[in-house]
Design goal:
Shape: elongated
Largest sheet: 2 strands, antiparallel
Number of domains: 1
Order of helices and strands: HHEEH
Distance between the termini: 14 Å
Structural class: mainly alpha
Helix content: over 70%
Strand content: under 5%
């Protein structure tokens, strides 16, 4: 059972790190203004990242200051916290139900 939890934790760390990379690519593409935001491969990128980033924009409207949107930073911070939690679970071998601790 511990191996399953450790493998799941490693998988979650990889997926969350990949999602952070997608958010960073989305931000850089938005700054470049070289590509239309809703055409081609960027459309898929926006579809993947927009729901998560809009959650921060809607819950915390002060993150959007005119032309500068800080919701990607808040989103990345939350993802990093989750990554640290999963990495810790992977290092400790998961949850020990009998002892009630890691």
């Amino acid at each position: 059972m511990e191996t399953l939890i450790v493998n799941f934790a490693h998988l979650m760390v990889l997926l969350l790190r990949g999602y952070i990379i997608l958010i960073i690519i989305r931000c850089v593409a938005g700054w470049m203004n070289r590509f239309p935001p809703r055409s081609g491969p960027l459309q898929l990128l926006y579809r993947i990242t927009d729901p998560y980033l809009h959650a921060f924009s809607n819950m915390l409207p002060f993150l959007n200051l005119g032309h500068i949107d800080f919701s990607p930073i808040a989103g990345i911070v939350v993802l990093e916290i989750l990554i640290r939690m999963f990495a810790r679970a992977a290092m400790l071998g998961g949850w020990d139900e009998r002892a009630g601790r890691h």
